[in-house]
Amino acid sequence: MRIGVLCATNRGKIMLDRLAELLSGHEFFVFSFRETPWEPPFFDSIRATAKSIGAQFFEAPHLDIRSLRHIWDEHLIDMMFLINWRYKVPPSVYSTVSRGVFVFHDSLLPKYRGFSPTVWAIINGEKETGVTLFEIAEDIDSGDIIDQERVPIGPDETIREIYDRVTETYLRLLDRNLDRLLAGTYNKYPQDHSRATYACRRLPEDNEISWSLPSERIYNLIRAVSRPYPGAFTYIGDRKLFVWSAKRVEPYRRYVGRIPGRVVEIRKGEGAVVLTGDGCIELTTVQREGEKALNASEILTSLSTTLGKKLSHAT
To answer: In whole angstroms, what is the distance from residue 8 CA to residue 35 CA?
Structure first.
């Protein structure tokens, strides 16, 4: 059988490894694209894996280009898998795949269709996410569901912990369903489209902290985009300051004179307490751009500091 794999990110590489192990002896066509400057590298490792298994490899985020037309016109691929693929696959491509096109997505569809679902779930304070295996359809992430598994999100867990757990769930769903997919004996059921929600693409600038937001929302952003992601950030003077970790602060003094972003307590060796829109948050690990990460109490040393306020804009 000829297997197509459209994959990206480290998770895509891990899944490609597993597919190559489970489908040893089959012919592979592997597609990927280069990572953006702000995300962990994956392209070279996916290409190396493809080479190691004797696969044909294509750098092609868009599959309907002329140079790939022969693959679809000649129906060269029998079954296709999409893992962390962020580009739409047109019907003119997937309709040529004879034995099914199957997509893995890290949410409990129909919730969180679209981009960065795990990050958005953490930001929104969800208590769980999940992984869905489904058939491709023309509308984004809308195909019939084959299998689904829930993944809990702890109240203080970071993206790294949850990402790893979601990746393990991807592997379980693949192991559990592959034989049925190959045999064409899998069950499926339609999504309830009336319950669908969507998540937009995220860019590094979206990670800037708005100190007027509630403390919980800021805390969730910090843990949602911490390493290996670009990190939540603010400004101290005219310097960008990344915030890698924080703690909830409650109960605390009730401020009726409040300037969001103002440092109100320095806890030496522990962190610095900063006012938010509805309370306070303790920053613990921060990093000036281009420097090493430090305890927040080593950088935020003055109660006159207001984060998020560039000196060039000060009045």
So the answer is: 8
Portions of the chain given CATH number 3.40.50.170: 2-199
CATH hierarchy code of domain 204-313: 3.10.25.10
Residue 315 structure tokens: 């009045």
Tokens encoding 295: 């305890």
CATH superfamily placement of domain 2-199: Formyl transferase, N-terminal domain (3.40.50.170)
Distance CA 1, CA 250 (A): 59
Tokens coding 266: 């320095």
Contacts of 111 (CB under 8 A, 6+ apart): 195, 196, 197
Q: Where in the chain is the domain with CATH 3.10.25.10?
A: 204-313
pLDDT digits (tens, 9 = 90+) for 176-192: 999 999 999 999 999 99
DSSP string covering 101-168: EEEEESS-TTTTEES-HHHHHHHTT-SEEEEEEEE--SSTT-SPEEEEEEEE--TT--HHHHHHHHHH
Average pLDDT over residues 158-184: 97
Of 156, 1, 17, 179, residue with least CA distance to 83:
17
Eight-class DSSP state of 225: S
**φ and ψ at residue 86, rounded to 5 degrees:** -110, 15
Residue 251 has pLDDT above 80, yes or no: no
